[in-house]
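Reopening this ticket.

The earlier resolution said the output was attached, but the attachment link was broken on my side. Pasting everything inline this time so it's all in one place.
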Amino acid sequence: MKRRVVVTGLGVVTALGRSVETFWDRLLRGESGVGPITLFDVSAFQVQFAGEVPWNPESENIASPKELRRLDRFTQFAMAAATDAVADSGIDFSKEDPFCCGVVIGSGIGGLSEFEAQHERLLTKGIDKVSPFTIPKLMANSGSGQVSSMFGVKGPNYTIATACASATSSIGDALRAIQYGDADMMIAGGSEAALTPMGLAGFQNMRALSGRADAPQKASRPFDRDRDGFVLAEGAGVVVLEELEHARRRGARIYGELMGYGASGDAGHITQPDAEGRGAAQAMAMALADAGLNADGVQYVNAHGTSTPLGDKAETLAVKRVFGDHARRLAISSTKSQLGHTLGASGGIELVVCALTLLRGVIAPTINLENPDPDCDLDYTPNVARDANVNVVMSNSFGFGGHNASLVLGRLA
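Inline output:
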């Protein structure tokens, strides 16, 4: 029999703020975190805006100045978000069996900034000048490894890279680890810091990004008729998952029960989604079945909603395929309208949004939805947050490579 799993801690690093409360307040006000890129010179780039995180690692209580120099930006994000999530959960890992606590933190790309910096050193200064810390800094599992070391947890510890579904896949795997007794607690989510010259150039040249240079804060506009691509962003989202009775015994605050997880593959184009949304629909249907719910049991969907012409249409079709007539009674919104697309971190940040939606009874909006697309004709909570009685939510993440993942979170009964 599967054990029940609950969410007891939340942590984020986003362009809308470092703390969960700041992030949530600005999200509900409909603010955008998109602005000019300051991390590097973008004068030669066509796209010069992104969802950049204001970041001062020295002010974070995650490592000494010497240690920080050995950590890529994405790893720093993961450690900061995990620190907040653990603090929010109130857990003291020194009092827990370390082999019953684990970490799964995903990343679609890993330490891209370190890769670029050391490649430049290799070409301009020679082999001997490449840092001996290059590999530990750039490897995608650095986030999980560092977080496990921070808290001394020795249970399941690995990283999932399923592109933009990485965080959701990681949380789903962490759910399974607890359900089947491999762990009592898991720190799970995703982190990404691909806002680098190579990252920006790569996405720009594949024409995945919005080119709305005259109004960057309006560039991310999921489900809008005039959407023209996503806005590149960075950040991290981490949650603490815990076996229900373990959480109850220590008097933990419970945000909700993680009830179901589903995953599938499109087996098609390496970047474009299945045009009919069949793979996405399969992941959603599996998550519902895993949760033991009918489609009409869900009130809110946090959509993948990247603001791409093909993706938003395919997700709309997938929602209709799974929810049938109930699709038109669902409230849906896209957090990416305000943050941009944080790639492998997005599912972690968005599960935090789902947990707060359950707790606070408010649905964050999809901003910049000014000209509805006839092909995207559901209720996307346009522009203004909405009070709602929400008991069950779904979070969707779909990634390059045809990776689809969905989670179902419900109010604890």
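Reporter confirms the inline version is readable. The chain has a mean pLDDT of 97. The longest strand covers residues 256-265.
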